[in-house]
């Protein structure tokens, strides 16, 4: 225990307190000997990093419980990694830096439920670098992360419906072509339609929508 505390830069008393609070998992025991490993050290460094970012011990305990109840990366990526997205590995501290003040147990639970986040040992995996960067930018612009996530859930529902439309059409009319080969066409249609829909919506918002005949 003394060696672990020294490596983590804390006192043995603090280490015992963290263990009593359930902030670190119990050690592996062989008789009367308790064995700590790199997982415990990583958790202690995470606790220190989150404390430095203003999180409370109660909040850290809630975050840890949320992650431990979430799906691991093997489950989220069980059908294979996204073909056009790049997963991102993060420490809890790095995730907190992306969404300063917005990393709450509630938001984490939502992100885990959506499959945006998964766990891999002491690391967090975000399923898509693009979604991570866009979400962080929206939060920096003042949109609450809870709103970003709830909007993401609605977008996911519409995206699934669009994907079903395209796959049905392709299966019905392009039997000699693999649907995956036509993904760029589907994406181009969605991008163009979304662009025009935004134009229409923004014109209505600023009152420049041309009158109907």
From TrEMBL:
This is MerR family transcriptional regulator. One of its GO terms (molecular function) is DNA-binding transcription factor activity. Residues 1-66 form the HTH merR-type domain. It comes from the Bacteria. Keywords: DNA-binding. PROSITE patterns: HTH_MERR_2 (PS50937). InterPro entries: DNA-bd_dom_put_sf, MerR-type_HTH_dom, MerR_fam. It comes from Streptomyces violaceoruber.
């Amino acid at each position: 225990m003394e060696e672990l505390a020294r490596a983590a830069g804390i006192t043995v008393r603090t280490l015992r307190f963290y263990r009593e609070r359930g902030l670190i998992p119990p050690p592996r025991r062989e008789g009367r000997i308790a064995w700590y490993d790199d997982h415990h050290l990583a958790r202690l460094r995470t606790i220190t990093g989150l404390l430095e970012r203003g999180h409370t011990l109660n909040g850290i305990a809630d975050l840890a419980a949320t992650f431990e109840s979430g799906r691991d990366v093997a489950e989220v990526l069980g059908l294979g990694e996204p073909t056009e997205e790049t997963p991102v590995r993060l420490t809890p501290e790095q995730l907190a830096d992306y969404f300063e003040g917005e990393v709450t147990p509630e938001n984490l639970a939502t992100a885990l439920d959506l499959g945006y986040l998964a766990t891999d040992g002491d690391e967090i995996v975000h399923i898509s670098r693009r979604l991570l960067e866009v979400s962080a930018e929206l939060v920096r612009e003042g949109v609450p992360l809870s709103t970003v996530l709830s909007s993401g859930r609605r977008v996911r529902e519409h995206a699934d419906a669009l994907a079903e439309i395209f796959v049905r059409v392709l299966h019905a009319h392009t039997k000699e072509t693999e649907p995956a080969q036509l993904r760029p066409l589907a994406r181009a249609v969605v991008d163009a339609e979304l662009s025009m829909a935004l134009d229409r919506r923004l014109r209505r918002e600023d009152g420049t929508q041309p009158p109907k005949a």
